[in-house]
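We treat protein structure as text, and this decision shapes the records that our systems exchange. Because each token names a local backbone shape, the row as a whole describes the fold. For reference, a complete record is included directly beneath this paragraph.
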Amino acid sequence: QVQLVETGGGLVQAGGSLRLSCAASGRTGSNNVMGWFRQAPGKEREFVAAINWSASILYYADSVKGRFTISRDNAKNTVYLQMNSLKPDDTAVYYCGYRYGSSIYYSTSMYTYWGQGTQVTVSS
């Protein structure tokens, strides 16, 4: 079992920045992928970004490329999402996902564990 706890959400004006953190605990291992997804009201959960264990492979959704940066600190079992130039369309609950292995997937079904989510609200 792996437990994930997201922090760092909040209310920010358009153009502002936030940094999300996701701390993993339990049977994390050294071969895993951690990703960020988001779900706006009335919409399906969608892929935002993901990173492999060595941080040699990073994927981003087109909608956040150039604005968001994913990173990780394996000593702390934590993955981060730096979000800059935020837009109202970025408003959603942001979830951290975890899967064993080295392959990165966009689909939520490929991630085994999930955090409880953290709300990000961007006002115009």
